[in-house]
Structures are given as structure tokens and as C-alpha cells.
Amino acid sequence: MVAFRNSDSSGRTTGLLLRCVLYSLLALGLIIVDKHYDHLGKIRRLLSIAAYPVQVAVESPFEGWNWFRQSVTSRDVLRADNAKLQAELRLAQFRLQRYEALEAETQRLRALRDNTAGVSNRFIVGDIMDVDLDAFRARVLVDKGASDGVFVGQAVLDSGGVFGQVARVEQLTSEVILISDPTHAIPVQINRNGLRTIAVGTGDSSRLKLPYLPTSADVIAGDLLVTSGLGGVFPPGYPVGTVAEVKRDPAQSLADVDIRPAASLDRSRELMFVWVKPGAVLPVAASAKAPAPAAPTPAPAPAPATGTAAAASPSAPKSPPPPAGANDE
User: Fold this and answer.
1) Can you tell me the distance from the alpha carbon of 267 to that of 256, in angstroms, rounded to the nearest whole number?
2) N or C: the chain end with fewer CB closer than 10 Å?
């Protein structure tokens, strides 16, 4: 057995057991005092402050390695994330652009909104391959064609508003005529008061015209123009443009109204081909009225060229349903 006794250099015997008991009692007393009065709390806090640099030094290599791994993310991953975010943004803009048109509607327009809610439940996105813009022709070539279900007369939009409609379809591509084309016309209405008229292209991608409004028509700068849905080509309620300037000459019966297009006709790269739900457009019978009811009876202006007249003529037949091969969204 181990004897609890030891001898120092002087030969005196020291009891190890006695010292162990005394130290144990001292430790127990300190524990009880710290438990009830927290006298050692300040000491522990001071020691923790002194130990903090050591903790930081120990954690720094691991945190530095994690930061380095996050900082050297590959360029391909960033490009993929960027492309995904851009696609989600375009989709969100396409779904939300009608809210600005519906925000200021009266009770009469709310009923129209209820009848035209969700007019488009199918669309596909195409990229512009070629641009043909001059004073007499405004058309673009898109990489979607008959194999994707695109048909002549189909409405085409971008993230800002109405862009144009399909003028010619090939198997893999299609030609889209812009709303700024001099031969194109589109039925519109003023969102503020519901006044219907026709917007025609000028050959300038930054300007449209309202040539059939009388000088007494209730139109002011800043008015939002949306599609009226007449003719069954363009879905109703989508932005077409904003009134930029109104000129009234007392010697003339018609006002000179300039429109700034809502779509980015000279900058868009992706276009959306829209299918209108059957029965979601306004009845053709209701479109027999004149585009501008308040207008007098001036001499009729020459009609737009064949191929785009369907967008402006209220009596144009509805677009055929898309083939079964079109993508659903």
C-alpha cells in the first residue's frame, strides 16, 4: 500500500493525506462561495478577454480557408446563375406588366378585367436573330417557327409591352413586324378613360401616332395606352405606349398625337409569342363600333398594307389555335 507520508530533506514527515483534505475543503469552499456570491465571475471574464486572441488565432485558418473557397467560385457558375436570374426576371416582368394598366381602371374597366383575366396561358420565348429597321420597314427575324407552333398574326411581346405580331412563318424561324412599322396598326384604348382608337407606326422605333382622334378628344400627355382586344389578335390590357405629346390645331379636325412605345423596339433581344385563350378576347360583335366613338366623320384614311391589317381591323377573324406541339407554361 502507498503510505500517505513523505520525508523532506530535513527529515520532517509531512502528511499528504492532511494536505489533500485541506485543499479539498478549500476548493469546496471556493465553489460554494462562487455559487452564491459570484466573486470569481469577474476573474473568469478577465481571463476570457485574455483568451479571446488565442481563440481567434485558432479559428482564423479555418475561416480563411472557407472565405478563399467562396471567393474563387468559377466563372461558369456565376454565368449560369446570372442567366437563370435573367430568365426569372423576364418571366416576372411578363406576368406583372398588366398591373400598371389595371391600376387606374374604373368600375367599367374592372368588369373588362374580370372577363380578360389570364387571357394568355401559353407562351414561348425566342431570340432575335436579325434586325431590319429603316424608314419603310421595321421587322426582325426570330428563332421560333412553325415547328414551335408559331402562326401568322400571332401577338408578340417583350418585357415592356406589345412588340408586334408575326408576319411570316418558316419551319424554324419567323418574321415579326414591329408596331412601329409604317404599315402596321393596332387597336388601343386610353387606360384613363377607356377611349378606343388605333395606333399606327411611323417608321421611327421611338414614336407611334394616333391619327384618328379629333381635337376635342380627351387625351393628354402621360396617358397610358393598352391593347383593347378588338379583332382578337392582341390580348386586351397589355401596355402599348404612353402619350408623349398632343398637338391641337384649330384649323384641323384631327389632333396630332405622338406615342412613346412601351416595348424596347430597338433594344430587346428576347421576344414572347403569346397564345390567347379561346373566348378570352372581346366579342367580335362588340368591335363593330368605330375605334374612336367621339370622333367626327372625317374622310377615311388608307388602310394598312395586307398582312398587318388584321391587327387593326375589328372584323378580322380570330387567330387559329396553336398546334399541339407548342410549349405550355
Assistant:
1) 27
2) N
Q: How far is CA 60 from CA 48, 73, 90, 214, in A?
A: 18, 21, 42, 76
**Cell numbers that stand for 285 in this block:** 360583335
Alpha-carbon dihedral 71, 85, 240, 220, rounded to 10 degrees: -50
With the C-alpha atoms ordered 174, 179, 181, 183, is the resulting torsion angle positive or negative?
positive
Whose CA is closest to 196, among 111, 325, 312?
Answer: 312
Per-residue pLDDT reduced to its tens digit, 158-198: 888 899 999 999 999 999 999 999 999 999 999 999 999 99
Rounded CA separation 304/198 (Å): 11
Distances in Å between the alpha carbon of 166 and those of 19, 157, 176, 178, 184? Answer: 101, 11, 4, 9, 11
Distance of alpha carbon 243 from the chain centroid? 23
Q: Which parts of the chain are beta strand (E)?
A: 5-7, 13-15, 120-133, 138-142, 155-157, 162-169, 174-178, 185-190, 196-201, 208-209, 224-227, 239-247, 256-261, 270-276
Give pLDDT, residue 160. Answer: 84
Nearest Cα to Cα of residue 152 among 326, 324, 322, 327: 322
Count the alpha carbons within 13 Å of 138 in the hemisphere toward its beta carbon: 24
**Running DSSP on this structure, what letter comes out for residue 179?**
T
The pLDDT of residue 304 is above 60: no
pLDDT tens by residue, 1-15: 444 455 555 544 457
pTM beyond 0.85, yes or no: no
Distance CA 313, CA 185 (A): 9
Phi, psi of 271 (to 5 degrees): -120, 155
Distance CA 197, CA 257 (A): 12
Q: Which of 66-70, 127-131, 220-224, 269-273 has the lowest mean pLDDT?
A: 66-70
238: left (phi over 0), alpha (psi -120 to 50) or beta: beta
Phi, psi (degrees; rounded to nearest 5) at 244: -90, -40
